[in-house]
Amino acid sequence: MDISVVIPLYNEDESLPELHDWIVRVMNANSFSYEIIFVDDGSKDNSWQVIENLQQKNAHVKAIKFRRNYGKSAALNVGFEAAQGDVVITMDADLQDSPDEIPGLFKMIKQDGFNLVSGWKKKRYDPITKTIPTKLFNWATRKMSGIQLNDFNCGLKAYEHKVVKSVEVYGEMHRYIPVLAKWAGFTKIGEREVAHQSRKYGTTKFGMSRFVNGFLDLLSIIFVSKFGKRPMHLFGTIGLFSFFVGGLVSVWLIAEKLIKISQHLIPRDVTDQPLFYLALVAMIIGTQLFLTGFLAELVARNSSERNKYLIDKTI
């Protein structure tokens, strides 16, 4: 099978028939073998009934329905598990992503050898309350991940089959799938400018809570990717540094007192100096971080995932 189109959705019953017909036209025009996987994320409208009607008309339609709303990342994750196509295309169900972009994305994966291609909606029709946080997110993610994409948040992306089988998406991490793919060893990540269309039906699901949660997820990805299997290297390093600085300051304060005594001067009590308590706090924090590193190492070593590595090829 050439292509799996994975479409997570929540309350999009108005747009689904038009989106389905558009995808079918593109697939037939390019003679692609395909499947369309709708993942209903606990919709409260008639989305599932619409999908059932589409499936009766088109055997290429497959669907998964959540009992309740889990979020876009969860919907993508189960869609990835079900996908069978050589190339997996994800797109939003609100008709803001154009299926006409599918042949170009497919070509970049199959012929140009990219592991992942992300759409870039250079000209957007979103409100400013969405575009400004999105630009901030893209900047922060570029700096922290080293991946030079302009639009991490674009729902229209194309993946090699083995990429979607190697990443696990949860929380609000669907924005950072290129980052997850890079840490999984898929480093050929490209970008393609795609058309953006204004929303035709329904309302946006974007909110400020997704802004905060998304930033926390980015920090989690960076931490787990770099230190998930060796947490002591992070906690131990910071803990040792903090303990060393606190200890050095304490020694200096004691030495200063002894020098003044040897010079028959009246020394100031060490415990009267605020710097002593700051040094003490630094040593306590350092010890706690070091112990945290030990505990994290024990947890990591007892994890069933401790020796799970992604193998590309064997002979």
Q: Key features?
A:
single chain; 315 residues; alpha/beta; seven-stranded mixed sheet; 10 helices; elongated
Notes on the protein architecture:
This protein is an alpha/beta fold. 49% of the residues lie in helices and 12% in strands. It contains ten helices and seven strands. It has a seven-stranded mixed sheet, with helices on both faces. Helix 1 links the parallel strand 1 and strand 2. Helix 5 runs parallel beside helix 8 and helix 9 runs antiparallel to helix 10. It is elongated and about 100 Å long. The protein starts with a strand and ends in a 14-residue tail after the last helix.
Biggest sheet overview? 7 strands, mixed
Strands, total number: 7
Mean pLDDT: 87
Backbone CA Rg = 26 Å
